[in-house]
Amino acid sequence: MAEISNRRNQRKGYLGAAALITVLVGLYWGLLHAPPDAYQGEVQRIMYLHIPSILTAYLSFFLVFVGSCLYLWKKEKRDDILAYSAAEIGVLFTALTIAEGSIWGRPTWGVWWTWDARLTLTAILLLIFAGYLMLRSLTEEENRAASSAAVLGIIGFLDIPLIHMSVYWWRTLHQPPSILRPDKAPWENVHPAMLTALAINFVGFVLLYFYLLSLRFRLGEMREEIKARWLNRGN
Amino acid sequence: MGAWRFVFLAYGIVWCAILIYWITLKRRLRRAETELAQLRAFEESQSNAQT
Question: Residue-wise over A182-194: b if at least 16 C-beta within 10 A, else e?
Answer without folding.
Answer: eeeebeeebeeeb
